[in-house]
């Protein structure tokens, strides 16, 4: 009995021993595997401390590129600590290399910048007549894209008849991305005539002319650019009488409007006379009194286009006016840069010299001579197209501007030889002669030449008159 119990105990101990050995072997195996796994992981991570999402990066053109956003792991560090070398230009499609460096490890990727976003297209409905050429741009209110956008019809149909149509507008960017939107086209027959505005009957003095299109415009309900023709060939400005000018407006649908303007040409006593208009720019000066004395001696009248430079001599202007000479407006400052800076700048300067002349003479002058004449090109430097506007606007405001058709050339320098001035100033044989001279302290030879100039023309039967707004007004070709 005792022997059997001992045997049972021995066997029990043996089984327990085997279990312990089994558990020990399993534990050793598991531990070994864990060591191998974690060791392998440690080795991999330590030899690959930097990991990216991929070696190819898709980047939308025009969107900001953040190279750190493509880093998935930095061993013992953060994405912000990784050095990045890149020349990615998101404004242009292309493949750009990017190099990431962390400690001694380097990873490379290629950033593919592509435009995959279709353009924005906003369309509008359009209504028109049967004559207009239908273009896709008529329906486009706005397009936007990172690149250039072209528009076209997805399909062109026959839209030539009255009615309402659905059109599909296709916008395509430089990468071929497309957007299509629908709009409505309404076509209807246009039977309404264009409207001519601004035509009024006119009265002019014999020898003067009219700007027949000045202040005249044409409006139409459908055609943004209706044509306008003016037939004024039967108006004879050289002969007093009543004439007709015919204005004809036509829209693209063929609708026609016609207006007749009455033009009355009044007799001008000066027209049939041979007249010399002596004109002096830039005064008053120390020479103004000498000029007035010569004019008195020869019983001749002249015109002074004055400035605001020498106002201590303004009493000479009062005397000139009292003697029957004309005092006109040249410029207050004679500074081209400021006078011709803009339309407003010119009229501000004109108002200053006008106020000065009116204060001195008691009369408002409507006689103008532009600094440099209407043909000057210096104004182009400050305001392109300015003289084209000013020559029209001053007349619309009731002024008349006077260029010249005979130049003494005394503006070419001081002390120009007297004989040269006389030769230039007496070279004209026109019926009405407007001679350009200058009245400044330095123009002594102009004063010396004046008697011979007057004597020459008087022998030819010319009278010497002061300018009025109805006098013959030579106008140069406008170059700006």
Automatic annotation (TrEMBL):
One Pfam family hit: Bact_surface_Ig-like
Domain NodB homology: 274-465
CDD domains (alphabetical): CE4_SmPgdA_like
BP-aspect Gene Ontology terms: carbohydrate metabolic process
Residue stretches spanning the membrane: 21-45
UniProt cross-references to Gene3D superfamilies, sorted A to Z: Glycoside hydrolase/deacetylase, Immunoglobulins
Record-linked PROSITE patterns: NODB
Molecular functions per Gene Ontology: hydrolase activity, acting on carbon-nitrogen (but not peptide) bonds
Keywords assigned by UniProt, alphabetized: Membrane, Transmembrane, Transmembrane helix
Keyword Transmembrane helix: yes
Cross-referenced PANTHER family: GLYCOSYL TRANSFERASE-RELATED (PTHR10587), POLYSACCHARIDE DEACETYLASE YHEN-RELATED (PTHR10587:SF125)
Descriptive protein name: Polysaccharide deacetylase
Organism: Sellimonas intestinalis
């Amino acid at each position: 009995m005792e022997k059997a119990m001992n045997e049972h105990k021995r066997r029990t101990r043996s089984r327990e021993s085997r279990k312990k050995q089994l558990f020990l072997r399993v534990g050793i195996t598991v531990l070994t595997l864990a060591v191998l796994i974690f060791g392998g992981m440690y080795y991999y991570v330590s030899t690959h401390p930097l990991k990216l999402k991929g070696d190819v990066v898709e980047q939308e053109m025009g969107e900001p590129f953040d190279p750190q956003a493509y880093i998935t792991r930095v061993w013992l560090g953060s994405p912000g600590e990784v050095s990045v070398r890149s020349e990615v230009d998101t404004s242009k499609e292309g493949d750009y290399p990017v190099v990431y460096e962390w400690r001694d490890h380097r990873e490379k990727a290629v950033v593919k910048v592509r435009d995959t976003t279709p353009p924005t297209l906003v369309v509008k409905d359009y209504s028109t007549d049967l004559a207009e050429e239908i273009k896709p741009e008529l329906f486009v209110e706005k397009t936007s894209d990172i690149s250039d956008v072209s528009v076209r019809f997805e399909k062109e149909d026959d839209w030539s008849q009255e009615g309402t149509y659905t059109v599909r507008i296709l916008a395509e960017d430089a990468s071929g991305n497309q957007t299509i939107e629908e709009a409505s086209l309404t076509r209807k027959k246009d039977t309404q005539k264009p409207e001519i505005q601004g035509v009024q009957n006119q009265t002019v003095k014999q020898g003067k002319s009219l700007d027949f299109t000045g202040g005249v415009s044409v409006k139409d309900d459908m055609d943004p650019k209706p044509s306008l023709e003016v037939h004024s060939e039967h108006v004879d400005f050289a002969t007093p009488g009543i004439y007709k000018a015919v204005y004809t407006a036509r829209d693209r649908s063929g609708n026609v409007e016609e207006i007749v303007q009455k033009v009355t040409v009044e007799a001008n006593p000066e027209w049939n006379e041979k007249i010399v208009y002596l004109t002096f720019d830039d005064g008053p000066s120390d020479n103004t009194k000498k000029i007035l004395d010569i004019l008195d001696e020869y019983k001749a009248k002249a015109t002074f286009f004055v400035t605001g430079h020498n106002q201590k001599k303004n009493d000479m202007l009062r005397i000139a006016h009292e003697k029957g000479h004309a005092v006109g407006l040249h410029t207050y400052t004679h500074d081209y840069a400021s006078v011709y800076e803009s339309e407003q700048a010119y009229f501000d300067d004109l108002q200053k010299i006008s106020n000065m002349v009116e204060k001195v003479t008691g009369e408002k002058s409507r006689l103008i001579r532009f600094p440099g004449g209407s043909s000057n090109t210096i104004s182009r430097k400050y305001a392109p197209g300015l003289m084209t506007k000013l020559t029209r606007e001053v007349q619309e405001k009731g002024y008349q501007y006077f260029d010249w058709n005979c130049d003494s050339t005394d503006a070419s320098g001081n002390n120009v030889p007297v004989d040269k001035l006389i030769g230039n100033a007496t070279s004209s044989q026109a019926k009405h002669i407007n001679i350009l001279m200058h009245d400044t302290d330095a123009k002594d030879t102009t004063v010396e030449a004046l008697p011979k100039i007057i004597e020459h023309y008087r022998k030819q039967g010319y009278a010497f008159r002061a300018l009025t707004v109805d006098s013959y007004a030579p106008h140069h070709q406008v170059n700006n």
